[in-house]
Amino acid sequence: MPPARSASSSASIWAVTSAADLPISEVIPAVRSALRTQPLVVLQAPPGAGKSTALPLALLGEPWLAGQSVLLLQPRRVAARAVAARLAEGLSEEVGGAVGYRVRFESRVSARTRLEVVTEGILTRRLQRDPELTGVGLVILDEFHERSLNADLALALLREVQGALREDLRVLVMSATLDPALPGRLGAPLIESQGRAFPVDVRYLPADPVGRVEQQVAGAVRTALARDEGDILAFLPGVREIRAAQAALAGVGALVLPLYGDLPVRGQRRALMPDPAGGRKVVLATSIAETSLTIQGVRVVIDGGLSRTQRFDPATGLTRMETGRVTRDAADQRAGRAGRTAPGVAYRLWSERTQPLLPSARPPEILEADLAPLTLELAQWGAPDPGALAWLDAPPPHRVEAARTLLRQLGALDPQGRVSAEGTRLLDFPTHPRLAHLLTGGAAQGQGALAADVAALLEERDPLPPGSGTDLTDRVAALRAWRAGHRGPGGGDAAALERTERLSRQWRGLLGVRPDETVPDPHAVGALVARAYPERVALARPAVSGLGRGRFLLAGGQGAALPEGDPLAGAPALAVAHMDAAQAEGRVFLAAPLDPDSLQTQATWMDAVRWDARAGHLVAQQERRLGALVLETRPLGQVPAELRVAALAGAVRAEGLHLLTFPLEAAQWRARVMSLRRWRPDDGWPDVSDTALLATLEDWLGPALAGARTRDDLARVAVLGALQALLPWPLSQQLDELAPTHLTVPSGSRVRLDYRPDEPPILAVKLQELFGLADTPAVNGGRTPVLLHLLSPAGRPVQVTQDLRSFWNSSYFEVRKDLRGRYPKHPWPDDPWTHVATRLTKARLGKTGPDR
Length: 852
Known about the structure:
Blueprint: H1 2-18, H2 28-37, E1 40-44, H3 55-59, E2 69-74, H4 77-90, E3 99-103, E4 106-108, E5 115-119, H5 120-129, E6 136-141, H6 149-164, E7 170-175, H7 182-186, E8 190-192, E9 200-205, H8 213-227, E10 231-235, H9 239-248, E11 255-259, H10 265-272, E12 281-285, E13 298-303, E14 306-313, E15 318-325, H11 328-336, E16 344-351, H12 372-381, H13 397-409, H14 421-426, H15 433-444, H16 448-459, H17 472-483, H18 494-511, H19 522-532, E17 537-540, E18 551-554, E19 559-561, E20 573-579, E21 585-593, E22 604-612, E23 617-626, E24 629-635, H20 641-655, H21 664-679, H22 690-695, H23 697-700, H24 711-715, H25 719-724, H26 731-738, E25 742-744, E26 750-756, E27 759-766, E28 778-779, E29 784-785, E30 787-791, E31 797-801, H27 804-819, H28 842-848
Parallel strand pairs: 1-7, 1-8, 2-5, 2-6, 3-5, 6-7, 9-16, 10-12, 10-13, 11-12, 13-16, 19-21, 27-30
Antiparallel strand pairs: 3-4, 14-15, 17-18, 17-20, 18-19, 20-21, 22-23, 23-24, 25-26, 26-27, 28-29, 30-31
Helix pairs in contact: 5-6, 8-9, 12-13, 15-16, 15-19, 16-17, 16-18, 17-18
């Protein structure tokens, strides 16, 4: 079509006239050649080489594209807009012509658009709607070294599309730094651009600093303004620190501007461009400025050494922001920003001794993130088992299972893990499934405007100052007052409220509802929060000595506490939105009150049987439960056998096997079986150790627990019979043959064997009863000699041996010398080989004859 040819022609002209000035020009022919024959190519090029702003234009005229479009993925909205602007500038066009972009809630594209810059989530949505990517010939994944969750997902889906639907689709993976193993893992050729970075003088502090990072950065900015040339880019972990540093730099004689993801587009553009007045500029940025973005005029980088990232705790289902040390690869990326256009300086606000101690790189997000969005996307894709896709790093199974549990609670997945109608609706909202479920539920209940406000407030920064309490209803009221034009003092942070209103407006547009400025109903707010966070519905715990009000139990089983004196402390029930991830009792940051009666509709009656360790008996009742919350109880008459067995087994596991009585026969039975398991490892003898028995209590002990309810009942359980049922035929027959309980000795006595799992069985027998026996008795089919404990007439051990023949020939005479004076009535022959074996004294032996 003519517009496509025009765009290709413009791109080619621009590539010839402008790309030659960029380092990437040296490898453009290699990239073109590789993409002509390879479906997947990897390109490594340092920041500033032109891989994002020159290479895509140079590829638009390739014959294999055949008029199709190119998608260029960027990990952040700020970068997507900025890269699109630079690309359009290269064609001397406005954004929205041959080059356009799509980010969440915003797009500038037209029928002429051939090169579309999109954020990663946008590509996933497009793939879900059109798996063949109709009209797209090339997908470029930029800044892949960041290994974002969406980038990994996009690559896995694209590889499946290439294999099943589109052999002609090309994928170009681009990265500033690269895992050396990546090309091999992808089976793709690697093309490297050396770049043309200018030297950067990296300066360290003599010692690691003490104090707040914003004050350290502000001090370093003042130093750099006095000593160095050019604009300054300073890295801080978050918006709060940026605002504090900006305030500390008031009056420095330079334009000080913030740069972060939620900054309005106008503010972002201002930070990226030179000062219109021609003065020096200081940009205070989060890690968003590490890659992709070109901030014109920067010659100095100041690195505060910290980075703020999200960490998901699957044990609590909570994601929290963590501030930690910057990684070495990120520090290199940051420093490199100073040398893009001329020699520069990088101030690192830590000591050189600390540098090698920094983490080398950030782990892939897929290994640490909340996987609920990814799991829902995979279910919609038709791959509920993540293992069906070709991942660089597969999502951890335990995190996938935690995500499935949440999605089932939200009604997004059916019990088989397939996406439900509600799950499909949730995917229409570009947000976490929790908030999407809040929005769909609010709309269905006629609370769409309130749902939009609540969802926006949960996504954005808290507009109220610290100490304002935890009640989300107060935030909704502040937002609505601000919307109505009531912007008096103490009404909240105007910038935060503006961003929140902008997001709420987007949600209202999707829901088709008008704004609401009425006073919000606190219980309605709580009901919406409960819809998004069902496991964080909470009931007040009774106050106990030393602990006052404001402590709650969540449906997920975790404890939660409000700050001291919080107005919500007297609420009987809460829906908690934001809290920390402490294992025992987390601190609540944002919540809303709930009507306890509203929980009844969600709760279900369940039979509950548990062990009361203090009283020593089972407690059986029916409970109306919502997760860990018990709303009502009533007695349970007939106790189901499986619940009784489970509760009693739990009691034994908690208190130990000593709750059961193991008579000598049972203890020896276990030792005999464990001995045979050690002697004959291939014969299938079961593991009856403490660990194994505790792990399988329901299987072997369950049948013997009929009617048991108390600690005394457990002590009376017939343990031996329960254990014997573990032996299948023919092992049960072989046990007595291979590991007999007794052996008959030459005197005629049947002597009990004492089995020990890790030692030979012990035969404790009086020495005189073995006269004439040459070989040590053996068990295990004659393979395992017993350990003889030879006893004196009084039953005391005088010798321990497994070599009876050697004893008769040597040690016996020493023993005889010692004992015949102490036991003169017993025989102590000179020749033990020929004397009659006996358990009697000499006098009784003479009366009765040989002892048989």
